[in-house]
Amino acid sequence: MATYGANQLRNGLKILLDGAPCSIVETEFVKPGKGQAFTRIRYKNLRTGRVVERTFKSVESVEAADVVETDMQFLYRDGDDWNFMDPVTYEQVAATAAAVGEAASWLKDEEICSVTLFNSEPILVTPPNFVNLEITETDPGVKGDTSSGGQKPATLETGAVVRVPLFVQIGEVIKIDTRSGEYVSRAKD
Amino acid sequence: MSTSRGPRTDWRPNASLEAAKARAQLLASVRDFFRERQVLEVETPLLGAAPVTDVHLDSFATTYSGPGETDGLPYYLSTSPELAMKRLLAADFGPIFQICKAFRNGESGRSHNPEFTILEWYRPGWDHHTLMDEVGELVSAVLASPKPDRVTYAEAFVATGIDAHDPDEDVLAAALAQWRLPAAETTAEATQALFARVVEPTLGSKRPTFVYDFPVDQAAMARLRTGERPIAERFELYFRGQELANGFCELCDADEQRRRFEADVEERERRGLPAVQPDQRFLAALTAGLPACSGVALGIDRLLMLALGSDDIGQTLTFPFSRA
After folding, report:
1. B28 HSE (CA, 13 A, CB side)
2. Contact criterion met (CB < 8 Å) for B110 and A52
3. What would the pLDDT profile of A43-53 be if each residue is shown by its tens digit?
């Protein structure tokens, strides 16, 4: 079992806290002039996404978490299983809907995603920052209608619904920023 | 971060030329301030024969060998000029100040560099309240900041809902857990951890704030005021989340000082820390007689951080530790 001393903690390090895999997002050395030294960290629980703060004495140690982030190709969905493949080793893993989370809105077959593995099990799927998806349903936009702020809802091939400008129509492929879930532009090609 | 280690050939300074000029200006202002008040600037050794006894401080150790000492003699980089300056006070040097480097092993972060600059001064015949007035005048002059506030430690600690001077052990332990702080070995450590986590962030957001009259188990080298509720005549200054200064109405009682040193030595042994011998020359000076006085240490680099509006000590240093 690998451990880190509190003095070795740094941003990005993956640690096991209360049985949960966590990623450190901030570290701070705290030392009152006449008091003992601490390492204060903010960490993200990789399962829940929650960011929490905790303080360790500089002499304490923390268990390392076997967490690997790797690029994988989305293959297909089979009920609750979302299947991904490592394009180098061809090894396949199945992620639960909970692990896929909001990425489900943006995943189409063959998309390359970042998959976080904890003890070889996928716990988090991060889609590319930008994806191109086809519009399967939207009302024909009426030019000059500004009552809706110049936007209308559109359903994408993945089932996700996004706001798009009035001029975009069914069958067009659009570029989405997956971090905000917002329309960026029509896809270039 | 100032702690990130660059390539070995990275020779450029960290501080901008503007920051270096601000430091030079700040040091000149401090010297003017004390010259006008007829406080004598002194120097004491950075390399001393006695290590610090404080349980939470760690001296850098080195070995002298040369004329007069061929076998090698242990020497330590000073963690504070306090004991040496008190020897000068015992020799009737009167009001004195010093600007020097201090060295503390293991302290590195956004507000800490293992080698840093201390301003320390002593005022014979003054109590800690009069000295707080002067610290306030210096800081306000340098930072153009408003006149400082004053709160007692107990008043500030009300934010935790706990009586700082008579805490219930179980309540302290529960508060540590609630704030996701590690379990503490002593009441003083629990109180300090809660103070740092809960109280400090609220102090001095608008104006510098003195916290004074500490729990007796955090007396360090402060005189105790006995009475119904004994307190330690110690103060700290906070501004914008930064601990800037620490001062005492100084303990002049050699026997009490010897007892505190012995307690440090025992606690060090219990924790498996390097054994240390208390500074006998300092104890001899105290026995000879230290005039009633107050003294304070102020972090020059942190003062400069505040002057520059920086939250990283590395930006105030030409070459921070990671690139020294």
Report:
1. 6
2. no
3. 999 988 899 99
